[in-house]
């Protein structure tokens, strides 16, 4: 149904009045919005220009009663770039509301007849609605563009971390800072499967993961590594997501323990973030000092994820350091070095027959008295030595995982010693 036409005389009055109406709108904005006065003179002039263009577009639309309002985003795109960066969507909505109110007050008064006044009132309301939609469209487009740009930056950062690209360390820190990452924050890496709800057609398939990180109070950088999801998370003490902040969070006694476990103290948020991954194991690398060292955590987490299938009962998340035996079986050389350096060597260097005690205890299937008889010591001596072993290595030979780790570490240490070339003193 066509809208009644407005007379040419009224249209002429509206054209002549657009400047005054726009000026009145800007004056009203200045009076009612405290933040408007903090804009620079150039920014306020940009608001006036957009308002004038909106009023002119309104008159142009009135000349064609059968057309739909076609303001779209032209008025907002004509604004200076600095103004668009300075103002939020909420502030823009406030400006549109005030401008519409001024239009409703001043434009109908220019009508020649009562019928024209009713037409102008309806037209202003309809045009104001289109202006609001145009503003929302502009900000939505800007948000999508920023999101796409951030996703590219994030992918570059994660890829550089995985590759340990030493040539672009400055660029990595700069890009991460642009994404909100604190350069001073320590970091750790989690690897798992992406959530099932992550559909490729969505604007941000990992929105749920980011939301979980926000609730946990940590910063994250997300990226794909083959079919898996790799998360670099900040690991700072005193941040959100701790058991003290969340009554439903796991208690300290409920957290898995183990050598090198990252799930204590400052990294308890890993428990919360593990739920954001898809089904399947989640492996956590060790905490490292800063993003530039995160490649070490990533390498161990990825190696652990490749080997975690050998331990179906692994907790979720599981530390890559708790997967050292499985990583050794999967051919991870760094796991061999870690077992020798962190487990076998401390036992060997501590002396006190700790290595012999561990082997005797395991050879006798954990029977304390039989182990003591074979070593010609009192059972309490065996108990004392086993406690020292647990203190030095974080593994107890009386536990299934601990016994496997200790047996493998001692064997690897001996294999390494046997393969080492003889020293000059031995040759002589």
Automatic annotation (TrEMBL):
Residues 354-411 form the PucR C-terminal helix-turn-helix domain. Residues 167-304 form the CdaR GGDEF-like domain. Residues 239-264 are annotated as: Disordered. Residues 242-253 have a biased composition (Low complexity). Pfam families: GGDEF_2, HTH_30. Gene3D superfamilies: PucR C-terminal helix-turn-helix domain (1.10.10.2840). Belongs to the CdaR family. This is PucR family transcriptional regulator. It comes from Actinomycetospora atypica. The lineage of its organism: Bacteria, Bacillati, Actinomycetota, Actinomycetes, Pseudonocardiales.
